[in-house]
Amino acid sequence: MQVEANRRPIEELNVQALAVAVYKDEKPGQDFLKKVDELSGGLVRSAIEAEEFSGKEGETAYFHLVGNDKLKFRRLLLVGVGEEKEYSGPQVSQMAGTAVRTLRSKNVKSIGVVPRVSGKDEDTARRAVEGAYIALFDPDKYRTVEKEQKTIDRLVVAIDGGDQAALDRGVKAGAIVGESINFTRDLANEPGGYMTPTDMAERAREIANEFGLNIDVLDEARMEQEGMGSLLSVARGSEQPAKLIILKYTPPNFEGDGKELLAFVGKGVTFDSGGISLKPGENMELMKYDMTGAATVMGAMRAIAQLKPPIPILGVAPCTENLPSGKATKPGDVVKAMTGKTIEIINTDAEGRLILADAIAYAKKIGATKVIDMATLTGAVSIALGDVNTAVLGTDQQLIDEIIAAGREVGERFWQLPLDKEYSRQIKSDIADIKNVGGRKAGTITAAAFIKEFADGLAWAHLDIAGTAWGDEAKPYRSKGPTGIALRTLLQIVERAGAK
Ligand code: BES
Ligand code: MN
Ligand code: ZN
Known about the structure:
With about 500 residues, the protein is an alpha/beta fold. The protein contains 14 helices and 20 strands. Strand 15, helix 12 (about 395-410) and strand 16 (about 415) form a beta-alpha-beta unit. The model has no long low-confidence stretch (mean pLDDT about 95). Bound molecules: ligand BES, manganese (II) ion and zinc ion.
């Protein structure tokens, strides 16, 4: 898809269809909408007056324009964006997404999108392009029939005003971020058989080479040397060797003192059967997405390498399968983590925390001072927060506040759960230092309390994305399947930190 921002009046755009944002209860009699109404020969007014379309978020109205020979575009889509005063970046993304998904289904090849935000032109261009890329992803990769074949060749974001260089920067950043989110979603969508830990490491090498990141991949022998008994205990049941992927971004001509280092750590269980504590068969196929945390870290690093913020970033992705076999770890086994802590494994299905324990300890060893980990960690988080909010917990309130605020700016919602020290009682073991499950109560919190044991001396926050990383239903602006949640928030945090 070719993408550009254009400042010319809309009637001069050389596209097949135009999509225009319309605020809730906006009247066609004034301002910009009046112009669109006139171009449409009164169709806009007619749709609004008939109460067919009111500008509610996600609502659309579609017209063929006939009899206006001056216009290049022959089709018009109105996209409702809700209240004007609440309309900003996140809604622009959804508006552009709804526009391209709707128009693609109507076989339109070139689209003009009019997001209608005044000021913030660069950001608007960026959010529109991001939204368009995200909208065009479909999870039907392995279909040979009834596959979504329609493509969009050209997208023009029409922004009246601003300077062209800023708009071009916005478009470029939007494409980088959109592609990186889809990279993450593609990984998350891959079946376990096609995306083993070795495949993950291969993909990491590809992005490192293509975009210029340092990469190191620890194999099991090196994990052994590092004493990563916790991570290795999960991999033991599998024929596929575990990999610990380390990606590092250093800004061009970096002259910082290198004392502060933000790390993203993501759970990469490429298939989670539960291990000896085998999961029920129903919906087990979904456990291919149990590596979404790792995929998100890789997608974020892929974007960061191109956006080139002024601060260094570390990305750490522990990758393994969790399978039962004669070699698999058994409930009751005790393992020793890299930090020296001993862990009684009560349930081999609580494997995510086991691999994060060693990955976070390793991130710290190689210089991380601040860690945000993300993981499809607990089913309990879906019970608590559904698919709307991602749980955030941690030891550094400032970091947590920053995540919540950054999320709000990009349209991703985070809700903090408490992590009082009392919860840690639930993970005390009779035989070892701690155990890997804390019982039925507060499952998302006790999982975080476990990880906290390995985040000593770090500013640390944890995101449980199990409820938000996979969409069971399609939205007007996005297919069902992997959502790419948290990636834009991570980038927002990096860009905020870089701007300080
Ligand atoms: N990967 C799962 C969590 C999960 C469940 C993610 C459903 C997405 C959808 C994780 O490894 C797991 O199995 N967690 C257990 C923990 C329990 C054994 C303490 C869970 O949530 O049931
Ligand atoms: Mn599990
Ligand atoms: Zn898991």
